[in-house]
Amino acid sequence: GENVEQHPSTLSVQEGDSAVIKCTYSDSASNYFPWYKQELGKRPQLIIDIRSNVGEKKDQRIAVTLNKTAKHFSLHITETQPEDSAVYFCAADWAQKLVFGQGTRLTINP
Amino acid sequence: EADIYQTPRYLVIGTGKKITLECSQTMGHDKMYWYQQDPGMELHLIHYSYGVNSTEKGDLSSESTVSRIRTEHFPLTLESARPSHTSQYLCASSLGASGYNEQFFGPGTRLTVL
């Protein structure tokens, strides 16, 4: 089956700096890669996604890159703000399900 | 407004009780999922359904059962709750078409078994 590995498990950055979270997947059949943000006490919410026919996608301060050959994809957050503090999950679609990474707890220090 | 609803939001019960966690969606989605998550930790898929009368076990072994009699409704039942079942349970749904599998999550039920 599909296996998604996410790193790092925790990340602390200064406000205004950039944050990068990386994920690798095992099954080349996966072709949809969403990123979810879960704030404390809230439900996970989709923040950006990318499909296999695209190498990069950007939405304001967040961007996702995909390298299908290497089977890895990354989330980039620029100019971080306190409200970016949350747990972030990557995922890959496989067998009509989403296989999630283990999560990254991002803390933005003022 | 199209959304996913879960009830109850919080539940504290004693060991051995039977409970049902409710999940309903007005998204018009065929696929629905149940995840178990300790706060801020990994999401574990415990059950999913591709449509009415379809249910499958997920990756995490669970003592719960599910049913899908109506498209919009996907309840989860624990026949005999134990302290090890203490966790948050998240319901989700998706349109399900290949490559368009964005999942929308409900607000969750926080279960505590004493």
According to DSSP, the number of beta strands of chain A is 11
Annotation field: number of helices of chain A: 0
Approximate strand percentage of chain A: over 45%
Distance between the termini of chain A: 41 Å
Mean pLDDT of chain B: 93
Relative strand content of chain B = over 45%
Largest interface: A-B, 24 and 25 residues
How does the overall form of chain A come out from the CA principal axes?
globular
What is the helix/strand order of chain A? EEEEEEEEEEE
Which secondary-structure class do the elements of chain B indicate?
mainly beta
Coarse shape of chain B: globular
Output the number of helix runs of chain B. Answer: 0
Cα radius of gyration of chain A in angstroms = 13 Å
- Largest sheet, strands/sense/barrel of chain A: 6 strands, mixed
Low-pLDDT parts of chain B are: none
Radius of gyration of chain B: 13 Å
Low-pLDDT stretches of chain A: none
Number of strands of chain B: 11
Notes on the structure:
The complex is a heterodimer of chains A (110) and B (114). Helices cover 0% and strands 59% of the residues of chain A. Chain A contains no helices and eleven strands. In chain A, the strands form two sheets. In chain A, strands 2, 4, 5, 9, 10 and 11 form a six-stranded mixed beta sheet that branches. The radius of gyration of chain A is 13 Å and the shape is globular. By secondary structure, chain B is mostly beta strands. Chain B has strands at 4-7, 10-13, 19-25, 31-37, 44-51, 54-57, 64-66, 76-78, 87-94, 103-105, 109-113. In chain B, strands 2, 4, 5, 6, 9, 10 and 11 form a seven-stranded mixed beta sheet that branches. Chain B has a four-stranded antiparallel beta sheet with strand order 1-3-8-7, with no helix packed on it. Classes of the chains: A mainly beta (110), B mainly beta (114).
Secondary structure layout:
The complex is a heterodimer of chains A (110) and B (114).
Chain A: E1 4-7, E2 10-14, E3 19-25, E4 32-38, E5 45-51, E6 56-59, E7 62-67, E8 72-77, E9 86-94, E10 97-100, E11 104-109
Parallel strand pairs in A: 2-11
Antiparallel strand pairs in A: 1-3, 3-8, 4-5, 4-9, 6-7, 7-8, 9-10, 9-11
Chain B: E1 4-7, E2 10-13, E3 19-25, E4 31-37, E5 44-51, E6 54-57, E7 64-66, E8 76-78, E9 87-94, E10 103-105, E11 109-113
Parallel strand pairs in B: 2-11
Antiparallel strand pairs in B: 1-3, 3-8, 4-5, 4-9, 5-6, 7-8, 9-10, 9-11
